[in-house]
Design goal:
By secondary structure, the chain is mainly α. The protein contains 33 helices and no strands. The longest helix has 15 residues, at 45-59. The protein is globular, with a radius of gyration of 27 Å. Residues 1-34 have low confidence and may be disordered.
Length: 571
């Protein structure tokens, strides 16, 4: 709960006569499709109390409660159009679309001269796919207030849904005629023109955006894409270099740039960008992070070469683990094993290196040696969770799931709130075909941290894969995507959920994005192949399955991929 709302509620409790302040409420609003309005003019204490409770309910995403509170506020202050707009927005968030349209019609009758009322009504019509009505309402909103930026932006969206691209462009240009420095207007027009191949018109718009908001990485990425489309590949690389350099070598910025390029189906350019931003003068930690980005992009060979280059400057364990991880991705596990086992006890990465080595041995079937290595390491680092997980994995792969389960159970008794332990234990139970147990193990993570994306994704995927509790799975995945909108694994889970519900169009969009964002993940490739098989698109499916097989998947995923390939080739 924000401090501003807390102070306001304390004031109400003390019985103060409050007057709504535009700066007060606007400052505490979370970013949402539209910012909820603030009542103008004085309100009675009961009206303001209901309004603030409605705002608190919105903050908590308790939209049914928000609806009730805004209705009560409206009854106490019928002269306030902004409260009616807040009610419409809450109804839409509660998915009460018909009620939102009714509230909009009532508000328009009472306040025909309010631009914000017409805008909110248009949003309700848009959500209900009544696009002609929405167009008419938005034109009225703009006529009443020709600087109503959200109305222009929504009008462009409506024209896009109506497949009228020229009108989309016209709406953005009308906005920019009123507000030439509009960041959203310039960015969205540039994106629209980029989609239509009008590359020469894109650059000045994006330069305006970057000048006003240089932290907006999407603008830098689209500028680079437009430059590359015009054959200016060198300029495009320099653009991305500047975006990275202005962050002072922040590895998270490199990660964001990579994901955005992968999302645009431009893996080759994404890899070129990584080569461009890597420099000898960057600190070792940043260069190591770039190495892992190479692996994520499916370029493990480049990661090996980068690790070897960094090793000329430092032999820290982190660099050696990077090289080993890249070698494992290249299926050169024995070379990786030698590197991991050479890392000394005194190095801070000793436990991590030994855990990785144990996994390599266990997956190769060398269970006796794996257990010897992990037990020796645990004597030196008895409290390390990764080593315990590696021991449990060895026991599980050797066929002794009972012993692995006992190991996890004992560890959880000592550390019941350890997220890493719970996820690892849950994953094992999922592999052991005990999904109900797996979900019970992971669910407590959300009690302590409702925004843990790994737990949200784990539970939702388990439900989707079993074909049960689809609404719950969708709620969890929607939340996870709000928190991590460019996570390929979450997109994959959501796509798989839509496939299981036979919503094939939505599933293909989500799974295709997941494949782009996680190109080296065989299970995601298999999921998209399953969709193509369902549609009788055998060639597409076989191409994806063959690519997945080359990535050398393991366990159940390997079995499923090989079975599908064999079946397709036998026909």
């Amino acid at each position: 709960m924000t401090q501003v709302l807390i102070r306001a509620l304390i004031a109400l409790t003390l019985g103060s006569q409050l007057v709504a302040s535009t700066s007060l409420v606007a400052s505490c609003a979370k970013p949402r499709p539209t910012q909820l309005p603030t009542p103008s003019g004085p309100l009675s204490a009961p009206a303001y109390a209901h309004y603030l409770r409605g705002r608190l309910a919105v903050e908590a995403r308790d939209f049914p409660t928000a609806v009730l509170q805004f209705r009560a506020a409206q009854a106490a202050a019928p002269h306030q159009p902004q409260i009616r707009v807040a009610l419409i927005e809450a109804l839409l968030s509660a998915r009460q679309h018909s009620a939102a349209r009714e509230a909009g019609a009532d508000a328009r009758k009472r306040f025909p001269g309010s631009s914000v009322v017409w805008l909110a009504s248009a949003r309700a019509s848009t959500v209900s796919n009544k696009l002609r009505d929405a167009t008419r309402m938005l034109k009225r909103a703009i006529k009443l207030d020709d600087e109503n930026e959200p109305a222009y932006l929504l009008l462009a969206d409506v024209w896009r849904k109506r497949k009228r691209p020229e009108n989309v462009e016209r709406s953005y240009r009308r906005l920019l005629a009123q507000k030439p420095r509009s960041t959203e207007g310039n960015y969205r027009l540039a994106s629209h023109l980029l989609e239509r191949g009008k590359y020469a018109l894109v650059e000045p718009l994006l330069r305006t955006v970057i000048a006003d908001k240089p932290e907006l990485l999407r603008a830098w990425v689209n500028l680079a894409r437009s430059q590359r489309a015009r054959g200016r590949t060198g300029s495009a690389r320099k653009t991305l270099q500047r975006a990275f350099d202005r962050s002072n070598g922040d590895a998270s910025v490199a990660d964001d740039l990579l994901r955005q390029l992968l999302d645009k189906a431009d893996r080759r350019f994404a890899v070129q960008m990584l080569h461009a931003i890597d420099r000898n003068d960057l600190n070792a930690d940043t260069r190591i992070s770039i190495g892992y980005l190479f692996i994520h992009a499916g370029e493990a060979g480049a990661a090996v070469r980068l690790a070897e280059e960094i090793m000329r400057q430092t032999t820290r364990g982190e660099v050696q683990i990077l090289k080993a991880t890249a070698l494992i991705s290249l299926k050169r596990s024995q070379e990786a094993l030698r590197i991991l086992l050479r890392i000394p006890t005194a190095d801070t990465t000793f436990a991590e290196a030994r855990a990785d080595a144990v996994e390599v041995l266990a997956r190769a079937g060398s269970f006796t040696r794996a257990l010897a290595v992990v037990l020796a390491a645990r004597k030196k680092k008895p409290k390390d969770v990764e080593l315990l997980i590696a021991q449990a994995l060895t026991l599980e792969l050797s066929g002794d799931a009972k012993a692995a389960r006992q190991l996890f159970t004992g560890a959880l008794l000592a550390q019941p709130k350890n997220v890493t332990l719970r996820l690892a234990f849950g994953s094992m139970e999922e592999r052991q075909k005990r999904p109900h147990v797996a979900v019970r193990l992971v669910a407590p993570i959300l009690d302590d941290n409702p925004n843990d994306t790994q737990a949200l994704n784990f539970i939702a995927y388990s439900l989707a894969d079993r074909g049960i509790e689809f609404p719950r799975a969708e709620r969890l995945l929607r939340k996870a995507l709000r928190l991590a909108p460019m996570d390929g694994y979450i997109l994959d889970s959501y796509g798989w959920l839509q496939f299981r519900r036979r919503k094939l169009g939505a599933a293909e969009k989500l799974l295709s994005r997941a494949v782009r964002l996680a190109p080296a993940e065989p299970e995601i490739l298999w999921h998209l192949a399953e969709l193509y098989l369902h549609r009788k698109q055998r060639r597409k499916a076989l191409r994806l399955l063959t690519k997945a097989q080359k990535l050398r998947p393991e366990g159940r995923v390997k079995q499923r991929i090989e079975a599908r390939i064999q079946a397709l080739r036998s026909h």
